[in-house]
Amino acid sequence: MDDAKPLSISRQSLQRMPIYLENLKKLRAAGKSHVSAAFLAGELGLHPVQVRKDLAAVSSVDGNPRIGFALAGLIEDMEDFLGCNNANEAVVVGVGNLGRALLSYKNFAGYGLSIIAGFDSDPAVAGTTVHGKEIFSASRITELCGRFGVHIGIITTPASSAQEVCDAMLLGGIKAIWNFAPLHLNIPDDIIITNENLAASFAALSGRLRQQRDAPKL
Ligand SMILES: NC(=O)c1ccc[n+]([C@@H]2O[C@H](COP(=O)([O-])OP(=O)(O)OC[C@H]3O[C@@H](n4cnc5c(N)ncnc54)[C@H](O)[C@@H]3O)[C@@H](O)[C@H]2O)c1
């Protein structure tokens, strides 16, 4: 669909989009042609109003009150929105446990991310390939990011190296950083950053578990 609406969307809504897309594709594979917001909400444990709002933010497909949204249009709009048909290219710096896992994960392509190469400071790692992607020496980050014309950099080095890696990426023209290192990075205001933190996610999980355990039994 050409006229998907460019509304401002919250981070939480953005994070739900790949989950909607996965579910919409499953329904299509099961032979369904339409889906209602109420059904999706039930499947994903969300409120139907929230689902309707999320879908309206990325799709111009109108839901029919009786049969719901046409799946084909919704999937097309969602894929356009997520950039699935025109994947963003990225590089990973730090090809250890986590960097290797990201380089090897096939499904990113379906969500608009194509990791094209890696960098590592370890001479035993630079010069190898992971999942068919070349791993270059970290000394070439600035040069090759510029030459590849990539705009997304993924940092999976130890925290002690993350700022220098980030600086080298920015000099090479990187505009958005997905940072897995547990460190606050100093970056200019116009650079987009997402910090991943498994410890924070786990704290939320264990906090909810504690609340459930401490709740009075009826
Ligand atoms: N945020 C999360 O949820 C999460 C989860 C797991 C790990 N981590 C973090 O991700 C990072 C990587 O973890 P890991 O388990 O893969 O570590 P690892 O030690 O297996 O890999 C780190 C890699 O970075 C390379 N490296 C070090 N300095 C470099 C530099 N200056 N330039 C290029 N490469 C460099 C090392 O040679 C190594 O290959 C760590 O900061 C860790 O704390 C974060």
TrEMBL record:
Tell me which residues bind NAD(+): G94, V95, G96, N97, L98, G99
The record's subcellular locations are:
Cytoplasm
Location of the CoA-binding domain: 84-184
What GO biological process terms are annotated to this protein in UniProt?
A: negative regulation of DNA-templated transcription; response to redox state
Specify one Pfam family: CoA_binding
Q: Which InterPro entries match?
A: CoA-bd (IPR003781), NAD(P)-bd_dom_sf (IPR036291), Rex_DNA-bd_C_dom (IPR009718), Tscrpt_rep_Rex (IPR022876), WH-like_DNA-bd_sf (IPR036388), WH_DNA-bd_sf (IPR036390)
Question: Which SUPFAM superfamilies does the entry mention?
Answer: NAD(P)-binding Rossmann-fold domains, Winged helix' DNA-binding domain
Provide a GO CC annotation, any one. cytoplasm
Q: Which GO terms describe its molecular function?
A: DNA binding; DNA-binding transcription factor activity
Asked if the Swiss-Prot or TrEMBL record annotates the protein with the keyword Repressor, the reply is yes
Keywords in alphabetical order = Cytoplasm, DNA-binding, NAD, Repressor, Transcription, Transcription regulation
Q: Which residues bind DNA?
A: 19-58
Q: What does this protein do?
A: Modulates transcription in response to changes in cellular NADH/NAD(+) redox state.
| Quaternary state and interactors | Homodimer.
UniProt lists the family membership as follows:
Belongs to the transcriptional regulatory Rex family.
* NCBIfam families noted in UniProt: PRK05472.2-3, PRK05472.2-4, PRK05472.2-5
Q: What is this protein called?
A: Redox-sensing transcriptional repressor Rex
Question: To which species is this protein native?
Answer: Synergistes jonesii
